Amino acid sequence: MGSHLFTLAAIKGVELAIFIFLFAVVTVLGFVAARWRRGETLEHLDEWGLGGRNFGSWISWFLIGGDLYTAYTFVAVPALLFGSRAVGFFAVPYTIIIFPMAFIVAPRLWSVAHRHGYVTPADFVRGRHGSPTLALMIALTGIVATMPYIALQLVGIGAVMRTMGISGEWPLIIAFVILAAYTYQSGLRAPALIAFVKDALIYIVVLVAVIYIPIKLGGFGDIFSAADAKFAKSPAPADGTLLADPQVLGYSTLAFGSALALFLYPHSVTGLLATRSRDTIRRNMAALPAYSFVLGLLALLGLMAIKAGVTPLTGSNGKPDVNTVVPLLFDKMFPDWFAGIAFAAIGIGALVPAAIMSIAAANLFTRNIYKEYMRRDASPAEEARVSRLASLVVKAGAVVVILVLDPQFSIDLQLIGGVIIVQTLPAVAIGLYTRALHAWGLIAGWACGLVAGLYMLYDTPNPVTGKAHFGGAQYALSKLGLTDGKTTLYTGILALALNLIVAIVVSLALRSRRRGFEDATTPDDYLVEAGDPGVKDLDAAPEEAPVTAGRP
Amino acid sequence: MAYDASGEERFTRQEGPPGPGTTTRRGVPVHDRNHGWYWLFAIPFVFTLLPWIYNKNSPELFGIPFFYWYQMAWVPITVVLTILVYIKTKGG
Asked: Among A345, A350, A346, A39, which Cα is nearest to A187's?
């Protein structure tokens, strides 16, 4: 940056200009999206909240990819590798195994949701298990898990802004006000259209970065040696070249548990239900791993930052903010104009998931709280209206949380979010296969899993950051009296195990008491495809070319 | 009351011969077949979720330690498996 006469000069003009230009382009797209593939009216939750339930393979690939791989992922995963190396790479096995699981399970959810007009996972739980109470629990869990996730998207934009020399909160507020406006206007069509720009930028930036930066840094050999040297000097036992022995189980349970959680998030379900057919989902599960490969490459950027000698900027709380590592690396290695494109990719990358998440949370409120408990006879138009307003409230809430509270609080909340969302697995994912678990068993299991998960998170210190509580989602088995070593397991998996045990025991105790919990679904509801009898006939959009599966 | 949000007429029972393998009892075509192929998905689970297999540095590839390139390699392998399962389980 050098020394300049006045502080404004610290702002990087070229980078900022390109960032603002691309941001303006997607803003226009966001508003235009209201007319794109328009149905008869936006005054219906299927239209505003699910984009007409009619997205084909290509659009869904961009939409779901843009939904699952968030800006926070793009800055936080490399930051993890920068900080503790091997452990951060769990994102790769995690995003490898998620798609086979979804390939098998997600089409069943699509079918039953289309047969019955379900919009949210809690809608399905309501119909399947016949319990409004359980559905409310599922809806609240979804909202609570999603809110901090939206707030973290602001952390992603903030990291980029600070690297460009812009501090302060107004740019974040402006970005979210614009986002809120076009989401209100266009619903799910806005992020679907913007996702094309976001993902195209991300792919370009990452491919250039993983070829160009290693060449400038002297190759991968040098990069890994530099990382080795850094971690060898560090006193912390949890970092290093490879996984330390006690970390191995924690690594695989974290990957597995995160994969179980991902498609339980309301925004993932929104992406799935917006597709046109079961077949669209199945094709996408073969094509979406292209993003996983990109994520793996991105993760390596964290190690490149070590070799490049990047020092994280100081955050608002006075501590180094490792989330600025990737933006700083781009700033250091790329010419200004390309760094601007890279920053825009991250910034726009925050908007797509934030929009989908706020839509998903708003739909949960509308369907499972407002309609269930306040206005039983709400018309589809009223549902759409309530959902639009709720999406504004959700975004305003996220901005307030990030501005008023320490960003660390959002990170803690997101950690909690992952642990609690996986507690909805028995009701949602197992519910797609069997009603063997009784509604009260599911409620009891959910409650026990939630309390145990929160307690374990509270009981986890982090010696590196000096935090006494909520120091991470790895729980030491020695605390359970199972081992006396340092082995840890992913907290979410431990809580889920307890959840399942409780649910099974209570269900066995109540197995003769089924009255009052009727199942609205039938076995073949889970198998129907678009065009079958009983599946809502949606206006056929022009055929698109099919995705060549697996080709990025 | 059964919870149905579609507001549309419920699916009506279709009488007719239950064509084994092609339709369910109520006449809905079966779109998934050959479910046994799903077991192929056990392969990536085993090989990516057991870090004991790959928690080592050598052999390196282009200077990248085994730990990193091995896990990355499972992305395309899993894609190939998914395409295979997709083709084999695709039904009418």
From this structure: A39
Q: Between vectors from CA B21 to CA B18 and to CA B22, what angle results, nearest 5°?
A: 70
pLDDT by residue (tens digit) across A323-348?
A: 888 888 998 888 888 988 998 998 88
| A 274-303 residues with CB < 8 A to B | 278-279, 282-283, 285-287, 289-290, 292-293, 296-297, 300
Q: Looking at the domain covering A9-407, what would its CATH class be?
A: mainly alpha
In chain B, the residue whose alpha carbon lies closest to the alpha carbon of A550 is B79
Q: What HEC string does B24-78 produce?
A: CCCCCECCECCHHHHHHHHHHHHHHHCHHHCCCCCCCECCECHHHHHHHHHHHHH
pTM over the 0.80 mark = yes
B63 touches A: beta carbon within 8 Å: yes
Residue that wins the pLDDT comparison between B5 and A204: A204
Please give the pLDDT value at position A322. Answer: 80
- Per-residue model confidence (pLDDT) at position A142: 92
Chain B residues with CB-CB distance to A125 below 8 A: none
Q: Is B36 on the interface with A (CB under 8 A)?
A: no
Comparing alpha-carbon positions, the chain B residue that sits nearest to A295 is: B72
**Interface TM-score (ipTM) > 0.85:** no
* Selection from A15, A149, A41 nearest residue A383 by Cα: A41
